[in-house]
Amino acid sequence: MDVLVGQLFTGLSLGSILLLAALGLSLTFGQMGVINMAHGEFIMAGCYTTYVVQKVISSAGVSLVVSLLIGFLVGGLLGAALEMGLIRWMYDRPLDTLLVTFGVGLVLQQAARDIFGAPAKNVLAPEWLSGGVTIMGAVVPKTRIFILVLAVVAVTTLATVLKTTPLGRRIRAVVQNRGLAETSGVSSRLTDISTFFIGSGLAGVAGVALTLIGSTSPTIGQSYLIDAFLVVVIGGLGQIKGTVIAAFALGLLNSYIEYSTTASIAKVIVFVIIVIVLQVRPQGLFTVRTRSLA
Amino acid sequence: MTTLGQRWRAHPSVTAWGGFVVAAILLFAVAPAALSDFRLNLLAKFLCFAIVAAGIGLAWGRGGMLTLGQGVFFGIGAYIMAMHMQMADAARLHNDVPEFMEIAGIRELPAFWRPFASGPVALIGILVLPALVAAALGYGVFKRRVKGTYFAILSQALAAALAILLTGQQKIGGFTGLSDFRAFFGFKLSDPVNRQMLFFIAAGTLLLVVAAVRQLMRSRYGELLVAVRDQEERVRFLGYDPANIKIVAYVVAAFFAGIAGALFTPIVGIISPADIGVVPSIAFIIGVAIGGRTTLLGPVLGAVGVAWAQTALSEEFPSSWTYLQGVLFIVVVGFIPAGLAGVWPMLKGVLDSRFRKTVEPVAVSEPLPEVRTEEKVESR
Predict the structure, then answer these.
(1) pLDDT digits (tens, 9 = 90+) for A212-224
(2) Beta-sheet strands, E only, within A201-265
(3) What residues have CB less than 8 Å from B371, skipping those under 6 apart?
(4) Residue A212 host element (H or E)
(5) How confident is the model at residue A288 (pLDDT cuts 50, 70, 90)?
(6) Are the beta carbons of A75 and A200 closer than 8 angstroms?
(7) Are the Cβ atoms of B157 and A282 closer than 8 angstroms?
(8) Chain B residues touching residue A267 (CB < 8 angstroms)
């Protein structure tokens, strides 16, 4: 029983990490159709932001909160710069954005290696996150619970922003019908930039969260990026609900398969399951029905 | 200028054969004479990448399928060859298991190794397994009309999954991979003559692959492939199944990548998960993009050029190569999508319109304008 519960929490925790990494993607990939391979490097930027902030602010608790804010800004600014510098020219060539942003990712990775060095860096977790909580016989580290809460907060904030604020309305309008939104007086340029800012900012937040569970290296973003993409693909494009469910489903699936086999075999099995799921639902689990042919 | 150009177009097969003869002379006579053993071996490695690139050119350039996971098929070919060579070495030394297993304390040969003890079985595996995996994934993906970005991400995820799988398996070398091969089908790898023979095999394979891709591109099938890339729905309405057309190109590309991997292992002497994961898989793309993805020779020359540049540059400036690679991705894919092969037609177009003062109609959504119409007409 406690093994089952333990795996449940491992899965939920992995799911919340995937969710944080995928939430920004679901905005930039799902809503805008841009495959941003540099998203992983924006996550990495969030990690290093935390590291730098902790150098300045020695109190781990304060530094974490400050890092979350600065991490969002750093990720967001990187994303906005990427959008303005490159992606704005390439909205009609999604596959090419993939390769171009991969190039950006390579440059950012090497930059991190040159600035911070290749060896992994560690960030101290605040005192109030040390130790664990015993839930139904299983010990769950507090950091993991914090990440779960952070993921939930991020999702609800994003959903609220998209649903209720003028900015959110503009984003949805541009996604649904760019031309009509323009004629109604919405600046699609500004909206594109803001969407990218938010999506990439969420990557920065994910990076800050990742420092709580492991050390930071220049390639940390890569290891989460593909899983994050799979989450968005399985969840269905442009669906926050789909992204949330897919993230937790993949997290749980992964943790239970991993428990009965090994981590590396679990990866392969999960991949096969994803391909099978796409046989039944080629457009992802949740998707808006349209009359388009494809 | 014009007469030469006309003659060029009038006899494409003559010039193509001329090109093959020149390439064969360069590869089989000039290169071995001009290059040291070390450089020749390096060139052989680049030729392996070029074989992969020729397949990517077909699937991506012609078929519009961005395959980010060619490392998977390259890896399957490479690992089967590596397993066979390990087993052959062990058999010669009258050992039950390859050396690295002995060191790791594995006394019994794992079952999945056993078939590859036989050379013919290993060769069949190299030719068949990558194609089978590609067919399975292609069938699963294209039949359900999953395409474009989804396919790119799935092919990439497959590469990640395989690399992670291999890293975790001590029975197949784990993180460090397989290395220290002594012989290639009975020929000692330490002998420079045999290493030269490997180069010739790679060069011959590349020529065959290029010839095969050329035939495919000029065939009816090649026409259909381009049609599927540009107007998939229309092709469907004409009564073809675009999925089958795509699967064939993807399988052919995988087949080439598997062969390239099998040649790579004896030439380089080591295969590890680092050679086949996500980053090397995407790195295959850059040579293709730089050379010109839709052309026949662009991917091949691009792959050799990029691999050569990487070796030359990273010897002197280890970190700058990564920057350069990133910038190449950005500049080439972002701003010269037709690659170097497309630079001349692009310049020519600009000059022509400048001097003739005529504005040519430009198709805005046309992603790859350099597929010329006369090419489409002549193979009818």
Answers:
(1) 988 899 989 888 8
(2) none
(3) B226, B294
(4) none
(5) low
(6) yes
(7) no
(8) 160-161, 164-165
Q: What is the pLDDT of residues B173-193, one digit of tens each?
A: 888 888 888 888 888 888 888
Give the integer Cα–Cα distance in Å for B148 and A178.
22
On the question of pLDDT at B128 being above 50, the answer is yes
User: Which residues of A make CB contacts under 8 Å with B?
Assistant: 29, 33, 35, 86, 89-90, 92-96, 98-100, 102-107, 109-110, 113-114, 222, 226, 229-230, 233, 262-265, 267-268, 271, 274-276, 278-279, 282, 293-294
Write out pLDDT tens, residues B346-371: 777 777 776 665 544 444 444 554 44
* A149: confidence class by pLDDT, cuts 50, 70, 90: very high
Question: CB–CB of A286/A242 below 8 Å?
Answer: yes
The answer to whether the CB atoms of A103 and B152 lie below 8 A apart is no
Give the residue from B72, B165, B232 with the most A CB atoms within 10 Å of its CB, the best one to mutate.
B165
First-to-last C-alpha distance (Å) of chain B: 27
pLDDT, average across residues A97-105: 92
Q: Would you call A221 helix, strand, or coil by DSSP?
A: helix
Residues B167 and B72 sit within 8 Å (Cβ to Cβ) = no
pLDDT reading at A116 higher than 60: yes
Comparison of pLDDT for B169 and B216, the residue scoring more: B216
On chain B, the residues whose CB falls within 8 A of the CB of A102 are 282, 329
Q: Give the number of other Cβ atoms within 10 Å of residue B235's Cβ.
A: 19
In this prediction, what percent of chain B has a pLDDT beyond 90?
41
Q: Is the pLDDT of residue B380 over 70?
A: no
CB contact under 8 A, B165 and A282: no
Token couple for B239: 């009564």
pLDDT tens digits along A234-272: 887 767 888 999 999 999 998 888 888 887 888 888 888
- Cα–Cα distance for residue pair B132/B126, rounded to 1 Å: 10
CB contact under 8 Å between B146 and A278, yes or no, is: yes
Q: Which of B67, B141, B164, B332 to mutate to test the interface with A (most CBs of A within 10 A)?
A: B164
How would DSSP label each residue in A146-200? HHHHHHHHHHHHHHHHHHHSHHHHHHHHHHH-HHHHHHTT--HHHHHHHHHHHHH
B358 Rama class: left (phi>0) / alpha (psi -120 to 50) / beta: beta
Residues of A in contact with B160 (CB under 8 A): 226, 267
Among A106, A267, A294, the residue with its CB nearest the CB of B329 is A106
- Whether residue B263 contacts residue B206, with contact meaning beta carbons closer than 8 Å, is answered with no
Whole-number Å distance between alpha carbons of A172 and B171:
51
**Beta strands at A132-135 and A138-141: parallel, antiparallel or unpaired:** antiparallel
DSSP secondary structure code for residue B117 in this structure: G
Inter-chain touch B149–A35, beta carbons under 8 Å:
yes
All residues at 6 or more sequence positions from B114 whose CB lies less than 8 Å from its CB, including other chains: none
Q: In this complex, do B153 and A35 lie within 8 Å of one another by their Cβ atoms?
A: yes
Q: What is the ipTM of this complex?
A: 0.85
pLDDT tens, position by position, B41-88:
999 999 999 999 999 999 999 999 999 999 999 999 999 999 999 989
A170, A191 in Cβ contact below 8 A?
Answer: yes
pTM of the predicted model as reported, rounded to 2 decimal places = 0.86
Distance CA A30, CA A164 (A): 19
Helix (H/G/I), strand (E/B), else coil: A246: helix
Cα–Cα nearest to A45, from A76, A87, A22: A76
Bin B108: left if φ > 0, else alpha if -120 < ψ < 50, else beta.
beta
